[in-house]
Design goal:
single chain; alpha+beta; 7-stranded mixed sheet; 4-stranded antiparallel sheet; 11 strands
């Protein structure tokens, strides 16, 4: 993801470092939901980020995501030296998912064309996600970060060379897992291998048990009503016949 990959750029990852990213899409009954991202840096990545006395919180810039309405947790450090950060943003309806994913993935990120469709029928609702995860050509997106470009240009750094070098390191270090949590508890996970491109197409159907029970109840009441009408008519005929015979 471009914005998440900026974490990798900021940490100046070296061979052997690992960045594990889990993106979870939670979908509610009405098609709203949230996108959650958890980024975990191993101990070596944290050391690289804090080289020369820097702090992880200062080296990894997430202010643009906060400005875009994302909730960003403080960095949580483990005893082994690793650290994690979590981000979350909601979407109001099915069509809103695409924009939220685009904010966290960016133009150079691996998530492409992620959309959610919700089709409500009489007794069930279908949820369908389309898109792809492309880890075959990850780039650091250095040229797309004006602040970083200004800093590196001032130091007379070859941006193209740095971008190419970081791209190789990203492909070595970056791991991505995508989780879809649908209404009813259905969970689908996709974990593309480095250097591959995979489809994210998945769907599920949520049966509306409440509506089905109401429909069944209406049918039972309707049948019972017809039965009572017919029985009353039969009894009425019998009484009329009895009077006529008497």
């Amino acid at each position: 993801m471009r914005r998440i990959l900026i974490v990798v750029v900021a940490c100046l990852l070296l061979a052997g470092c690992k960045v594990d990213t889990t993106l979870t899409i939670d979908v509610d009954d009405d098609g709203s939901g949230s996108v959650r991202v958890k980024v975990a840096l191993d101990a070596d990545a944290v050391k690289n980020a804090e080289a020369a006395g820097g702090a992880l919180e200062d080296r990894v810039r997430l202010g643009d995501l906060r400005a875009a309405g994302w909730t960003v947790s403080p960095w949580r450090r483990a005893q082994d030296g690793s650290a994690t950060v979590s981000l979350r943003k909601g979407f109001a309806n099915a069509s809103g998912l695409a924009g939220v994913v685009a904010e966290v993935s960016g133009n150079d990120g691996p998530l492409r064309g992620v959309t959610l469709e919700r089709d409500q029928g009489f007794l069930s609702t279908d949820y369908k996600v389309t898109g792809e995860a492309d880890l075959s050509a990850l780039t650091a997106g250095v040229a797309n970060d004006p602040e970083l470009v200004a800093q590196l240009t001032g130091q007379r750094v070859d941006l193209a060379q740095i971008d190419q070098r970081l791209a190789g390191q990203i492909n070595e270090a970056f791991r991505l897992r995508i989780r879809f949590v649908f209404p009813g508890g259905d969970v689908t996970e996709v974990e593309p291998e480095p250097g591959t491109k995979v489809s994210l197409a998945t769907s599920t159907t949520q049966f509306d048990t409440t509506r089905a029970l109401l429909l069944a109840g209406a049918v039972v009441l309707g049948v019972a009503g017809v039965f009572l009408v017919v029985r009353g008519e039969v009894r009425g005929r019998r009484r009329r016949r009895g009077r006529a015979a008497g």
